[in-house]
Design a protein that fits this description.
CATH superfamily: P-loop containing nucleotide triphosphate hydrolases
CATH class: Alpha Beta
Radius of gyration: 23 Å
Largest sheet: 8 strands, mixed
Strand content: 5-15%
Number of domains: 1
CATH topology: Rossmann fold
CATH architecture: 3-Layer(aba) Sandwich
Oligomer: single chain
Shape: globular
Distance between the termini: 51 Å
């Protein structure tokens, strides 16, 4: 995605260094550049330079912290496709709201909100033992259910860098935003990456797979970028659609960034040993908030 930066004189650019901001007023964080300008003849510059004035010290209150600007309203908007049931306003959404599946997600939503509020948590991962258990389906529908709470803010991040699928599930165009890798590295502004799907739901999409996903998860820049995103968007909950826990070390590498994790199991393929191994991996790392059974037999579902 091409960045358009505000033009300025050469002197102004040199003074500002890496604090150049997007021209459209959507600046969210300094952009980090790999190379800095190098002076060819430092001695000559020093000889001809005018003596610097003594710095002026201004008394200020210690530990004064300025809250970052709320950027929720400046995110680029993109609504999910009309043929899916994620957001209200389509026939698919109305039909889905009347199903047992929708009611199950609403129940999960309420319990999750109560838990995170009680503990002051924000970052919730959604993962499965193995591939194909329905993690993205669960993450998208839980995010949609959370977004129906008035005056709330939910962010859904596609962190399955091996096989991103949130854009397809929501029928959204991931190419309309910056690349996830560049965003996590600090080279794409928050408002140029995160898309606002509704007044209460924002999404971070992935457009392509990354073979070094585990290394990206452990990069300190990733933690810094996500911390800045939370400070700027002020979400109640951030859901991370994670890759399978037992297939790669991606999710394990990201556990220190999570407050809790929901495990999605598949009634047709997940075994007890898979759940036990996941519990062993999570033990002492992050709380396991619950196990969601997907594709359960109809006869095993108790009705009230």
């Amino acid at each position: 995605m091409k960045d358009n930066y505000a033009s300025s004189s050469a002197d102004q650019s040199a003074e500002r260094g890496d604090l150049m901001v997007p021209a459209q007023g959507s600046f969210t964080r300094p952009r980090r550049f790999a190379d800095a300008p190098v002076l060819e003849d430092v001695d000559m510059v020093l000889e001809n330079a005018a003596p610097k004035a003594a710095p002026v010290v201004i008394d200020a209150e210690p530990d004064l912290v300025v809250a970052p600007r709320d950027l929720w309203g400046v995110l680029h908007e993109q609504a999910p496709g009309k043929d899916q049931h994620i957001l209200d306003g389509s026939q698919a959404a109305e039909d889905f709201r009347a199903t047992d599946v929708s009611r199950a997600f609403d129940l999960l939503r309420t319990r999750l909100r109560q838990t995170v509020t009680q503990h002051g948590w924000v970052n919730i991962g959604i993962a499965s033992p193995t591939a194909g258990c329905g993690t993205t389906f669960t993450a998208a529908n839980l995010a949609a259910s959370l977004s129906r709470v008035p005056s709330s803010r939910t962010v859904l991040m596609d962190f399955n860098m091996r096989d991103p699928g949130v854009a397809k599930t929501l029928d959204m165009d991931a190419s309309a935003a910056g690349d996830l890798r560049d965003f996590l590295a600090g080279d794409v502004a928050i408002s140029d990456y995160v898309l606002r799907a509704s007044d209460t739901l924002a999404v971070g999409l992935g457009a392509k797979a990354h073979a070094d996903a585990a290394e990206i998860m452990q990069d300190p820049a990733t933690a810094a970028s996500l911390e800045e995103m939370r400070a700027a968007l002020r979400p109640d909950i951030v859901l991370y659609d994670m890759p399978p826990l037992l297939s790669h070390d991606d999710t394990s590498a990201f556990l220190p960034q999570l407050d809790g994790i929901l495990l999605v199991s598949d009634g047709t393929q997940t075994m007890a040993k898979h759940i036990a191994e996941c519990e062993r991996v999570l033990d002492g790392q992050v709380p396991l908030l619950g196990v969601i059974l997907n594709r359960a037999r109809a006869s095993s579902i108790e009705r009230f």
